[in-house]
Design a protein that fits this description.
- By secondary structure, this protein is mainly α.
- Helices cover 80% and strands 0% of the residues.
- The protein is built from 19 helices and no strands.
- The chain is globular, with a radius of gyration of 21 Å.
């Protein structure tokens, strides 16, 4: 009953904020919901001493949810499947090399760039954080969040090849990021030192297992839908792929997110045209689009209200904003370096690199990973700094990436005409 009550409150708030945003703010839906949740959080904090009950009630509601388990164990699987099922595999194949490089090599480069620069900077700001915890922050903040990226890109008018690079990278970099995070977390918390072989095995098991399971689920579901062509049963089959697939991935200790990505790509591309009538295809697309919108609203509501559970956030304003600059600089280095040393099929212009850097949004995944760190003297600092970077990324970068892409595209057209 208590869980039902909590979910009911969240749905009501999400629907109210979504309506208010569409009616008055007219921001992209996910950003609008998060901004309103943050505004309510700030009001509750300001008036919390005068009216403590509302603040305590909302804080208790948010703390009652295990955000890490809720996002990484449930919502992320639905959101990734919903995003992957709408991606054109042909477009993805055309950009496979940059996507593969940016989702692996770039994540590692960014992790060490962020961690090393943060370790040098924090003593100047009177904040103590050991080098391993700086690297831990680097690992959780380096991957671009597929949920944030896909939801924002829907409303940002960027050219198709660039959109595919950003979306593809965000879908696939979770596997590498989680492995890097797990290895560094083990080192930081004085666990047994993981060897290089252990790290490679962990990566192969997580990513390879996710690939094999996702493909198997995708092919099996597609064949089942081809034999019946019934939209009600087809929707149930895709639901079983997401929910049952997560249970199998958890049992086998392989990447649930990657399982959902590959299953969604298979169902959304290889068999959709052959297995479904236009009616079934239309219902399936609309069902997952609606799921995507609802879960995104709830997720970004959570991100906004997480302001209430970040301890001593006022003490981290300066480190937080400094880390925004560090993360953007490290993102630039992690994108720029591979374009200089790897021969991609198409040349990356300065404008394209700018859009890739600015379009690499951080979101709920980074917050969930930060919250998953065991309690200790450095956890609060990491959570607070992560929150600053995520909020800046979603609001500032999310609202301006479309304008930047339009400007870059316009400049490139002008140059090509003049040449």
């Amino acid at each position: 009953m208590e869980l039902y009550y909590s979910l009911s409150v969240l749905i009501v708030l999400a629907s109210f904020f979504a309506y208010f945003n569409v009616r008055f703010l007219k921001l992209p839906s996910t950003i609008g919901v998060m901004v309103l949740a943050m505004a309510v959080s700030i009001i509750l904090v300001i008036f919390g001493k005068v009216f403590p009950n509302p603040l305590n009630d909302v804080s208790a509601l948010i703390k009652g949810f295990d955000f890490t388990e809720l996002l990484m164990g449930a919502m992320l699987n639905f959101l990734l499947f919903a995003g992957a099922i709408h991606i054109n595999l042909k477009d993805l194949k055309e950009q496979r090399l940059p996507i593969m490089v940016f989702s692996t090599v770039s994540v590692v480069i960014s992790t060490f760039a962020v961690g090393s620069l943060l370790y040098l900077l924090l003593p100047l700001l009177a904040v103590k954080l050991p080098y391993m915890y700086c690297l831990l922050f680097g690992s959780l903040i380096s991957p671009t969040d597929p949920v944030a990226v896909l939801s924002i890109l829907k409303e940002a008018k960027v050219r198709k090849s660039l959109e595919t690079k950003i979306a593809g990278e965000s879908l696939f970099n979770d596997g590498v990021a989680v492995v890097v995070f797990a290895v560094i977390l083990q080192l930081a918390q004085d666990g047994p030192d993981p060897t290089v072989g252990y790290a490679i095995w962990l990566l192969i098991k997580e990513a390879g297992g996710g690939f094999l399971l996702g493909v198997a689920l995708g092919i099996g579901a597609s064949r089942a839908m081809r034999k019946i062509d019934d939209y009600k049963v087809s929707v149930l089959i895709t639901l079983s792929v997401v929910m049952g697939g997560y249970l199998i991935a958890s049992t086998l200790h392989i990447s649930g997110p990657l399982t959902m990505v590959f299953a969604g790509l298979i169902i959304g591309n290889f068999k959709k045209r052959w297995a479904m009538s236009p009616i079934t295809k239309d219902y399936l697309d609309k069902f997952w689009e609606l799921n995507d919108e609802i879960l995104n609203a709830i997720l970004f509501l959570f991100i906004g209200f997480n302001l209430l559970v970040v301890k001593d956030i006022n003490n981290y304003w300066l480190p937080g904003f400094a880390c925004v600059v560090l993360v953007l600089f490290s993102r630039y280095v992690s994108i720029w370096l591979p374009t200089k040393f790897i021969k991609f099929r198409e040349k990356f212009s300065k404008g394209t690199i700018k859009v890739l850097v600015w379009g690499g949004l951080r979101g709920g995944v980074s917050i969930a990973l930060a919250l998953s760190i065991d309690d200790g003297p450095y956890k609060d600092a990491i959570i607070a700094i992560t929150y600053f970077v995520v909020v800046f990324s979603i609001i500032v970068q999310g609202l301006t990436v479309g304008k930047l892409a339009t400007k870059v595209l316009s400049e490139e057209k002008t140059k090509s005409v003049s040449v």
